[in-house]
């Protein structure tokens, strides 16, 4: 029987690489089962999940999300890993604050499936594309979590968090005495900065303070044209564990812009990433193709990849998730859940979705039935 399995598997190109890589004999029945149940062609659809308010409320799963995600893997598989993935999916969130690899580990534990860093697209993930432009320049990163560490892992060589940067300027913050900043160690400062930040002009600001913006990147000096300012998203509100919505980065942007425009002759200039920017959805489509390639290793080259016929965006925020999918157009289909920001009975008046459901589990059930995938 084992010889028969070996012969069948060796004749199947999609699993030949695994055998050549030293697959143990004990794993052959599992490989055979996956080959037996796999479709002859990869699926022509994929799914993008928002996280907060759709899959999680705080750190707690909601809407039957663990069960919904497990349905995207082959039932015959012993574990929900990329090799057993039946339907390609990604997490498309405006959140962030930690590296994608760390968020993937957190989500894997919270949702009970093995998630690759590739599958996590956060609000600040597109900042990777700015590395070539600002790789050696002084960058100040502001936001929840550890934005400085995130930017450093992206490849920015001269980056500081706003707290570390502000600590270099005596008396810049009137509330400094009430804060407990962690001072950078001399070795860390030497690695992070090539020159003294007090004399080095900030070249790009990732959500920061009026003093840097109005002085052209050199606090305490003359007023000058502001450095480029980038926001990871423009969410006014989002749904976390607390019953009421929380104000997001979009609210901070409005406050910062209002103050800056009041004290500066020129209006604040900025670039916002994240949903509902159509660029984010196009990038998600490319990532879904990469996930598909990883899951279905019988696809030998990117030249054989066929465009998706349908991509489903499952979100809870009409102005962000649904609006973004609508702006992106074909092949995106929008599905609105009632487990987060949106809690209405019917559809949303300003940003109506293609489908409104009570939970992400109901959304996945609809998708699999529509795509005739068991």
Automatic annotation (TrEMBL):
Pfam families for this protein: Hydrolase_6, Hydrolase_like
InterPro entries found in the cross-reference section: CDP-alcohol_PTase-I, HAD-like_sf, HAD-SF_hydro_IIA, HAD-SF_hydro_IIA_CECR5, HAD_sf
One Gene Ontology term, aspect cellular component: mitochondrion
GO BP term, example: glycerophospholipid biosynthetic process
Cross-referenced PANTHER family: CAT EYE SYNDROME CRITICAL REGION PROTEIN 5, CDP-DIACYLGLYCEROL--GLYCEROL-3-PHOSPHATE 3-PHOSPHATIDYLTRANSFERASE-RELATED
NCBIfam families xrefs: CECR5, HAD-SF-IIA
Protein name: Mitochondrial hydrolase YKR070W-like isoform X3
Source taxonomy: Eukaryota, Viridiplantae, Streptophyta, Embryophyta, Tracheophyta
Name of the gene: LOC113709661
């Amino acid at each position: 029987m084992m010889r028969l399995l070996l012969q069948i598997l060796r004749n199947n190109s999609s699993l030949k690489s695994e055998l050549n890589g030293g697959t143990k004999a004990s794993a052959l029945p599992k490989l055979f089962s996956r080959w037996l149940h796999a479709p002859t062609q990869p699926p022509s659809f994929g799914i993008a999940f928002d996280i907060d308010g759709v899959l999680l409320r705080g750190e707690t799963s909601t809407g039957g999300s663990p069960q919904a995600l497990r349905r995207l893997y082959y039932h015959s598989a012993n574990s929900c890993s990329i090799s057993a993935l039946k339907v390609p999916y990604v997490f498309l969130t405006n959140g962030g604050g930690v590296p994608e690899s760390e968020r993937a580990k957190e989500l894997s534990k919270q949702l009970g499936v093995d998630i690759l860093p590739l599958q996590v697209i956060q609000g600040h993930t597109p900042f990777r594309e700015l590395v070539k432009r600002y790789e050696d320049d002084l960058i100040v990163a502001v936001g929840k979590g550890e934005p400085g560490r995130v930017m450093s892992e992206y490849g920015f060589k001269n980056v500081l968090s706003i707290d570390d940067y502000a600590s270099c300027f005596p008396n810049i913050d009137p509330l400094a005495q009430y804060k407990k900043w962690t001072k950078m160690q001399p070795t860390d400062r030497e690695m992070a900065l090539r020159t003294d930040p007090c004399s080095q002009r900030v070249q790009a600001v990732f959500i920061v303070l009026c003093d840097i913006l109005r002085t052209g990147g050199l606090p305490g000096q003359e007023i000058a044209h502001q450095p480029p300012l980038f926001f990871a998203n423009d969410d006014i509100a989002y749904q976390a564990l607390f019953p009421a919505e929380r104000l997001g980065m979009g609210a901070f942007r409005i406050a910062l812009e209002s103050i800056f425009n009041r004290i500066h002759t020129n209006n604040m200039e900025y670039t916002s990433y994240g949903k509902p920017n159509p660029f984010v959805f196009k990038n998600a489509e490319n990532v879904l193709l990469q996930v598909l390639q990883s899951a279905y290793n019988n696809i030998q080259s990117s030249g054989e990849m066929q465009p998706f016929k349908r991509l489903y965006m499952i979100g809870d925020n009409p102005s962000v998730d649904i609006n973004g999918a609508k702006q992106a157009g074909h092949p995106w289909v929008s599905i609105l859940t009632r487990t987060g920001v949106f809690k209405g009975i019917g559809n949303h008046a300003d940003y109506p979705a293609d489908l409104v459901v009570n939970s992400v589990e109901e959304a996945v059930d609809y998708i699999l039935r529509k795509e005739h995938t068991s």
